[in-house]
Amino acid sequence: MMRFLFCAALALACCGGLMGQKTINGIVFSDEGDPMFGLSVLIENTNIATTTDIDGRFTMTVPQDQLSGFLSINTGYSPSRIAISSFLDGQVLTLQWTEAGLVPFYAVDEVTVTATRATSLTPVTYTNVTKEEIQKRNLGQDAPYLLKWTPSVVVNSDAGTGTGYTGIWIRGSDPTRTNVTINGIPYNDSESQGVFWVNLPDFSSSADNIQIQRGVGTSTNGAGAFGATIDFNTNQIGEEPKLSLDGSLGSFGTRRGSVNYTSGLLGNGLKIDARFSKTYSDGYVDRASADLQGYYAGLTYVGADAGAVWRFNAFGGNEVTYQSWNGVTQDEINEFGRTYNSVGTEKEGEPYDNEVDNYRQNHYQLHYNNEFGGKWSLGLSGHYTRGLGYFEQYKADEDLADYGISGTMNNTSDLIRRRWLDNHFYGTVYSLRYRPSSLLDITFGGSANEYLGGHYGEVIWAREAGDSEIRDRYYDNDATKRDFSNYLRTNYQVANGLSAYVDLQVRHVSYEFLGFANDLSRIDETATHTFFNPKAGLLYQLPGGGQAYASFGVAQREPNRNDFTESPASVRPRPEKLLNTEIGIRRQQGNLNYGVNFYHMAYQDQLVVTGELNDVGELVRTNVAESFRLGLELQGGYRVSDDFTIGGNLALSRNRVKAYTEFLDSYDENFGWLGQDAVEREDTPLAFSPSVVGALDLNYRMVNTRLHKLEAGLQTKYVGERFVDNSGTEGAALEAYNYTDLRLSYSFDFGARRDVALPESPMNPGADRTMPAKRGPKLRLTLLVRNLTDQLYVSNGWSYRYNFAGEETLLKGMYPQAGRNVLVGLGLDF
Questions:
Q1: N or C: lower Cβ tally within 10 Å for the chain?
Q2: Three-class secondary structure of residue 565 per DSSP
Q3: Which residues partner with 494 through β-bridges?
Q4: Which CATH superfamily does the domain covering 2-106 fall into?
């Protein structure tokens, strides 16, 4: 296959030189990801010119004698110059404006990923995070900590540092309700529906851009979005070859090394990407260490004429993380301090030194994109993910019968166990786009995936092992989950500046697992669900730029693994349903950009923990008939000068459960269990849903010369009071908090750089226009002081509410975050 691709690329490259003229296609985006309309596009030293349309697109036929020339594009900030040779036949070159000018790249996944992504013509609420923004803040932190400044986002780290196990809440929706895709491929765990960023260390270093859709958003692949969708795109083709070496050191023994290489698009249509990263941190919490390594490799082939693009991606990571899942109670803080970690302390004396989570995950993706006749675009992707790992625990005084161990003098023993997950996930993602004119855009797409999950446990040591053998499994069960979905999306311009959007999705899920029958015996069971998720909206192009939009969408999703496996079918919870309304305005006016968005998210049968036990004595989630989120999101930015910018966002919301029944365990004075008491709750706050979340971002460029750049950034985050359960009682609240990060960035371009004078053009007669020659190596130095004001805050928690001797009592766990800490990064680009 590779021999064929190389031969084909060589043949196409040779044929390209025989052409008499060339038709080029481009699309221009702002730094916010919005199309730039009405820009002048001129072939220098000629009168051949055009302008970008409402979608930012342009097409131009270039005569043979100008094939080695340049385009001049006036963005309104400054003219930019693009070599005509950068344009490949049959491919659309994307040009995105940055402070450094227009950055060209090929979005080779335009069909597959754009099928599920939002654009400025989509009436949904979204935020784009560019590669430049990622690189500016990235010193190896997990992805949630690079996204924490975006609207309505709250993040948490078990270790307190942003490395290891981290989570992200968007509009108060927990991580299992956030749909995550990588190049359009689902990433959420199929069974728990959770997102484990620790399995992809430093993955953000390979991301070209990240889009966050809040609310239902567009139809996507994988589990339904019940609060947000996050899509990572790694498939763009940058123009310049680049080798980057990065290292960082910081507080709590944190250190990271990374090598990142891209060949740029070679003359034969090939592009190679590679990255290897290794990160280590002791963690802020005691023993909460993380030893992580991650990699990324990509091989791309771009056809010269037919518009075909092949892309193979391989990426993954291995993590060994000392568990810090338990959090800490106030009594433990009072006795041991806020960094206390109870994990591993069942062992007498020193805590067990290998109470770790050890997991490896490898992802493989093959993408194919093609365009036909200028109106049809096809995207096909195949994927396979392999995961294997365990978490290890020292358990004291365990009942040996629970582990199938007999032949001992005692019925209990200390032991060490490993609980394994052995999984395979594979499938296909597809889309077909038809765009007969600028007025109509139709996409049909979907996915078909299968997940195979093996779950088993081993006792690797026991003080009294009896008749057990090494690698005996004390439980062993498999699960199979199949997910098939199709969607049809249409965007049609019904009048000048007004477009209508319809998005219809059907999703079918089947799940085979080991569960409980009504007589509490263990049997193989199957559950199936079919969901219809319609979405519709209107978008109006405002005079002078910007859009106003309104949309309504429905999302439905199945319960997770524990909801299925720990309950008999007769009491298993029902699927959840979300009705989402979004109304907003987004606009760019000169140096000012702003967005205002109102949302209402009405839930039917939302699943929450109420303390209720099922037939087998397990805590279960219960359907709540009615709950909602009502909010207003504001965001904006202002360029005060070429060197000083201000940005920020503010989310105000009301998040409530109308009524539900909470169940409390009841104990007598000797902690003898008496059963459960029912408590009726009305109009209580949804757990983990602050009513106020805001961020402020100040950036000042103190030095900005050709060789030297020095920039300071100050980011502040505020998170209002959050409750760890749905009771709304005072003791269940986590206090509001704020923190500020200070970032100093310095870069230096080595070697002399001469300016090349550009010829005058009709667009800018007599203008002093120069462009730098090819640069030499570049040094980057970053100092990041996190939590500058040393706030001692808690970002996550849990609760156990019970009645003791007739009095309601609360046990609350918390996850303290690090005070002031420092990261220093050094990078070299060649």
A1: N
A2: helix
A3: none
A4: Carboxypeptidase-like, regulatory domain (2.60.40.1120)
